[in-house]
Design brief:
With 368 residues, the chain is an alpha/beta fold. It is 48% helix and 17% strand. It has 13 helices and eleven strands. A four-stranded parallel sheet has the order 4-3-5-6, with helices on both faces. A three-stranded mixed sheet has the order 1-2-9, with helices on one face. The chain has a two-stranded antiparallel ribbon with strand order 7-8. The relative contact order is 0.10. The structure holds nicotinamide-adenine-dinucleotide and zinc ion (ZN).
Amino acid sequence: MTVDAVTVGLGDRSYQVLVGPDLLSDAAARIAPFAPARRLFVISDHNVLRAHGAKFLGGLRQSGFAVHELALDPGEASKSFAGLERVCGALLDGRIERGDLVVAFGGGVIGDLAGFAAGVVKRGVDFVQIPTTLLAQVDSSVGGKTAINAAQGKNLIGLFHQPRLVLADTNVLSTLPRRELLAGFAEVVKYGLLGDAAFFDWLDAHAEAVLAGPGPERTYSIVKSVAAKAAIVAQDEREGGIRALLNLGHTFGHALEAETGFGERLLHGEGVAIGMALAFQFSERLGTCPRGTAERIAAFFRRVGLPASPRDIPGFTPSAETMLDHMEHDKKAQGGQLTLILARGIGHAFVQRNADRAAILDLWRAAL
Ligand SMILES: NC(=O)c1ccc[n+]([C@@H]2O[C@H](COP(=O)([O-])OP(=O)(O)OC[C@H]3O[C@@H](n4cnc5c(N)ncnc54)[C@H](O)[C@@H]3O)[C@@H](O)[C@H]2O)c1
Ligand SMILES: [Zn+2]
């Protein structure tokens, strides 16, 4: 079995992201160095445990670990104060101590919640990420951002807490609904669009193989994505500068998610796909990016089964003003300026501060 490794270089908080098929089988041996007391607190959700719990937890117990497990309800609603209370309660009931390890076994919801709980319980215990969605493998499990949601907005309560290890098993994605797989794929494409034109070209040629199942193409796409994120995080752990490039497509995308209610109607990755197409359209309008680039990207998204325009969202008819309002809502959080990630071409994203309100309104008018 070949296993690829990417190092996230953060000094004494550095860690490895391992990517490959069937990493769950020998997860116990890989986790062992980080759990000297041989006690694990596995936080997961019901969907993940139904699909992969027996194999994963059975393997850990067979290897002699004492395993506490907590299964939360699937979905964003678990990333709440109530969810945090449940996780912290379970850790304290099990008398977690230094030398024990929290294991986040699930998608981004579980990773963000379990990571946050690990960061605050007893002022911080170690944790590892075993991401089970494509989005979590290429994005949320790497970089140390953890959070829950507040009534005032998503991810507003949290902290930076880096994992000790990330195990991305490419086989576990076989049970993921196709729509979730595609939503995660949008974040893979993001790394090509923001900083690596050759990777985008490769994805254009190999997308179907990446999405078909575990295989060398899928592994390669995850390794490239993680390496891209690791390089950015290593330079800018706390998002003072270039980490912002990872938000390509996200300000437009969040506006779409807000208008569709942050739910089933539009998954995060779907909003990001449309948002990236819009960011490139906007860049073309401003003259920073060659004509035809946005159309190439949109055609690629549609080919693989992702939406590429607000018009691809069924029954979606808001006004341009409403969409700008959603974006301005982000602006308030950023000190009165609307910051966007724009592009000079595929693979060349940049941060645009003080983006022009009237021009954005025109873009929405044309796109809706
Ligand atoms: N920390 C970060 O840097 C960061 C980055 C991006 C996103 N996020 C967060 O990630 C979250 C979204 O993550 P997500 O897209 O993984 O969603 P998720 O965790 O809700 O998982 C999506 C769905 O897939 C199910 N699932 C997970 N793995 C499965 C598997 N292998 N087989 C079958 N079903 C499976 C889950 O139960 C859930 O129903 C959001 O809360 C977002 O804020 C965080
Ligand atoms: Zn995202």
